[in-house]
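Look at one record.

>
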Amino acid sequence: MPREQTGAERYFAERRKEPGFEEAYLAARKRIDRIDSIMRSLDEQRLRQEWSKAELGRRSGLDPAAVRRLFSTESPNPTLSTLVALADSMGLQVELKPTGRG
């Protein structure tokens, strides 16, 4: 017997029928996935350095509680300034590279 869809699944199934929704959804999903990847990389480096989230916050000049929340939330959305501060404190550099598009 198939599993019944959740309310969210039904909602997105309906929205996907709307013109332009699928493209907008996929673009947003791609951005979210990239942010998640960056956050995972920063967290892995933090763990290698054996720093707590609060210690990373102090070393980066950011509010330790805010850094803890940033790494604990389901969908972080840090500013570029925050990412650079976190990376700098761990001896990392934020770089842009071509994607091969455009």
